[in-house]
Write a structure and sequence with these properties.
- It is built from two helices and six strands.
- With about 140 residues, it is α+β, with helices and mostly antiparallel strands.
- It has one domain (about 10-130): Hotdog Thioesterase (Thiol Ester Dehydrase, Chain A).
- Strands 1-2-4-5-6-3 form a six-stranded antiparallel β-sheet, covered by helices on one side.
- A hairpin with a 2-residue loop joins strand 1 and strand 2 (about 25-30).
- About 30% of the residues are buried.
């Protein structure tokens, strides 16, 4: 079984993110928010957007050294417009590794709505750590 994020991450699995690009310090994820991912204004909840940004930045950091894992040290998020989607539409997140040292990665991420408009952006700092084995839930 292939595990696209390098490890089974139950919360990411629940949200349904798909990894579309993972190479050379760049990553791209797609997210089709479901009704349970919306807030009281009927737009994508800010917490779901922050998770999407965290994951897209982490995958950008890992894309240059797939043998390592990363943990989030710091993240700053700015929301510009609501993440509005209708049934089946996707939010697109793009991550970029800005700079890395032996043990740290400095990244940025952006989330775009189905019309290509910027909804949210973030910067993040990640620490490279030894990666755990990619485990998935038991299918017994």
């Amino acid at each position: 079984m292939s595990i696209p994020f390098g490890a089974y991450i139950p919360f990411v699995d629940h949200l349904g993110f798909t990894l579309e690009k993972f190479e050379g310090g760049e990553s791209q994820l797609h997210f089709a928010p479901r009704p349970e991912h919306l807030n009281s204004f009927d737009v994508t909840h800010g917490g779901a957007l922050m998770t999407l940004l965290d994951v897209v930045m982490a995958t950008a950091a890992r894309s240059v050294d797939n043998d390592m894992g990363v943990v989030t040290i710091e993240m700053k998020t700015t929301f510009m417009r609501p993440g509005k989607v209708t049934d089946g539409q996707l939010l697109v997140a793009k991550g970029h590794l800005v700079h890395r040292t032996r043990s740290m990665a400095f990244t940025e991420g952006r989330v775009y709505d189905p019309d290509g408009q910027l909804c949210a952006m973030a910067t993040g700092t990640f620490k490279y750590v030894a990666r755990r084995l990619a485990l998935s839930p038991s299918t017994d």
